[in-house]
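Hey, quick one: can you model this chain's 3D structure?
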Amino acid sequence: MMATAKPLFSHRPYWAHRFGTAPFLPTTRDEMDALGWDSCDILIVTGDAYVDHPSFGMAIVGRFLEAQGFRVGIIAQPDWSNTDDFARLGAPNLFFGITAGNMDSMVNRYTADRRVRSDDAYTPGGVGGKRPDRSVIVYAQRAREAFKGVPIVLGGIEASLRRIAHFDYWSEKVRRSILLDAKADILLYGNAERALAELGHRLAAGEPIAAITDVRGTAFVRDRVPGDWVEVDSTHLDSPHAPAMQDPTVKVVRFVRDVRSADRGRSVIRLPSYEVVRDDSVYYAHASRILHMESNPGNARALVQRHGDKELWLNPPPIPLTTEEMDRIYELPYARTPHPSYGDAKIPAYEMIRFSIAIQRGCFGGCTFCSITEHEGRIIQNRSEASVLREIETIRDSVAGFTGVISDLGGPTANMYRLACKDPAIEAACRKPSCVYPGICPNLNTDHRPLIDLYRKARQLPGIKKVLIASGVRYDLAIESPEYVRELASHHTGGYLKIAPEAIGEGPLSKMMKPGVGTYYRFKELFDRYSKEAGKEQYLIPYFIAAHPGTTDTDMLELALWLKANGFRADQVQAFLPGPMATATAMWHSGKNPLHKVTRTSEDVVVPKGIKQRRLHKAFLRYHDPDNWPLLRDALKRMGRADLIGNGKRHLVPRFQPKGTGRAPTGEGARRKRFRTQHTR
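Sure thing. Here's the predicted structure for all 681 residues.
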């Protein structure tokens, strides 16, 4: 059974709760003075603009800590060239909380082709360049320089996904845990409210941060494994069938193969060290597999990974929040607007979500390229129906500019609300990375009635004209409930519904852990039928990823032909971006498949890495763009498919090249050189 946890709001409030609730968490000394504060207990440093809305991490963390009685200040998008901004609110009494924001800073700043983005949706005016590369590391360093001796606590998605040795796409190497590079005291991974409450109150009680080593969902550094712990070699659990791990940094080996039930709570799994996974990609893939196998809060054990002469220790994941705890978090007194200091400047991310509502956390899909499951976990954490309806009324009554349309009612996925394993004991023991791949688990409850009831009650509230579903519908789940598809098509689609097949070929789909195209067709048939019954002309907009591990040129050609046959012309396409810690990134780096046991001779994964091949795969998705035709013509000839070049309906690309597009058809050397220069930078 799942371990129990101390109720989130059962801690005795810190004495500073007497100051009450701040209209906005202070960002300046003047705001602190207006609140009557002489100091802050906790300072949150974030790479995003400060938006006091529950879709922004710093707002949830700040308001939650305020509810625990602490005085919390915000340092948003500081100038990192010196320590002035980090010192402007004074030294925090308890700790600095460092986060890159709602996105990994490298994903935020760079495209999949490693080009610098010109904009930033989390910045006023959408201006780019307001955060540094590897923001968590830089911010932690500046905070330490500003106030030596103040504990540094890392959190947020950048820290969470870089908590162990990880492949970094932008530097093309395996990097150390971000905890060591940032020289921080502790890292909180995943949704960290439980760890934050425990940490804050224990520090406030005078406990040194170095002594806090028993909190779930945390990572920290220690000199050695305590003597009363049993070490389990990860290669005994899932052997790579490689030469014995030669790790000179581990001097004492006390490994066991089998751990008695009584000892499981004091057993730690030793992953191959940073130095080993850095130098051997097979061991990297093996370590990734073990990490994902040990991700269920019901059965996960602690992990340890040697970095030089230090031990990186990861406690098991946090216990999921209850519905009552979720309700209280999302009903904290958010102002629901950006901080007044931004004036009339628009923050694109806020504009997109200002009228949206989160009803759940987590995802049990386990898509290998996605960070949701790795960060939020695969156990769905739900809000109550009443809490969601109250938030809709709050938006209706208090948010400026509301026109009666709720832009989204969902979460990481639109339709996992109240879906869970039928047996809690099975759920706590399960190590499968997905509940829906290769097929829907027979133990999974797929009843959509609670979600249908919520939709119906939401749209019946006075003053609510429309409730749209904008976040991704998991269509393999949706077809298990035709009534849900009817509800979606009849009332909650605004003409177009975006869904994500991601690929149609079995090769890439098996590496993504996504359902086959037949499932898409079944969903489309239901969606089209119910749209017609409702008298609505509505369309599905499928989303695909180019250059994902497991994808060949032939897979992309078949996808292009499928898109053309179905009349789809994508305006924007996304090439696979290897994010830190993702299973697909382990495939990208190692060429192995960690969804199965990794050995020297285990399944090899084709990886479209080169820039030419990645551009070709993107070009297949935009087969209709004349600028891509020269590239596609060359590829089709090379692949023996010149029969697809022509001006008929059965052809993929025409023989002619419109003037001013693509490469000149005359073969002039100078013009070809210009084309190559312009397209390979």
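One thing worth noting: Residues 356 and 408 are 5 Å apart (CA to CA).
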